[in-house]
Each structure stands twice: as structure tokens, then as C-alpha cells.
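Quick question, first post here. What does this chain look like in 3D?
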Amino acid sequence: MVSVVQNVAIDCTNAYELARFWSEVTGHPLHPDDRPGDDETLVMLPEGPVLHFNQVPEGKTVKNRIHLCLRPDSTREAEVDRLLALGATFVADHRKPDGTGWAVLADPEGNEFCVLRSAAERAAT
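> Answer (accepted):
Ran it through. C-alpha cells below.
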């Protein structure tokens, strides 16, 4: 017997607004039934588990123990710029002079995530 990952749950203070941010990040829609003020919302990814946003009363207080890693279809640098324009904040720089590494950003509620090099950037080195 095995278990299948159904969703990745993200606790937050405003489920609908944070789901809208991640919908823009991924380019995939919210569940069609989701509305502002909903306690739970979903971003419908085409492959793998959905992103499930669950409204909780407490705010984030420590670093995430689990986080998302994003591999852009553009360059890493262009994606970092795009995500910052959407409302992400820059947390840490783990990019190296040889082009490897990643950037750590946080969503509008402070949940950290990584931006990796694109497949094309990886193939070029």
C-alpha cells in the first residue's frame, strides 16, 4: 500500500488573496467555485497535487520546514524580477558566480520558496 499526495496545504491569514498570488505565479487558475472571503481555496495545477490554501487564525512565526521550489520557463533572473513585481519579497541569495544556485523569495504572507535555474539554463552549463 502507498499514499498519493492529494494537495500541498499552505496555512495563511487570507486564503483567497494568497491563492490569487500563487495563481499568478503558476499561471494556473483558482478553483471555479472559489470566492473572496472563502476559508479554503485551491490553485488547480495541471499535474501533481493542487495548492490548497487554508485560512488559520495565527500568523507565520518561523521559517518554513517545507517549501516550494519553482523552475521557470524563462530565466531564473527574469522570474525573480516577475515574482517581485507580483508582490514577493527577496529573502536570501544562494546564486553562485558560475550560474548555479537559487534565490529564496517569500510570498505576501512570508512563506519562503525557491526560484531555481530554468531547464535551458541547466542544460547550457
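Strands lie at 7-12, 40-43, 50-55, 68-70, 89-93, 103-106, 112-115.
Residues 1-59 form a domain with the 2,3-Dihydroxybiphenyl 1,2-Dioxygenase; domain 1 fold (CATH 3.10.180.10).
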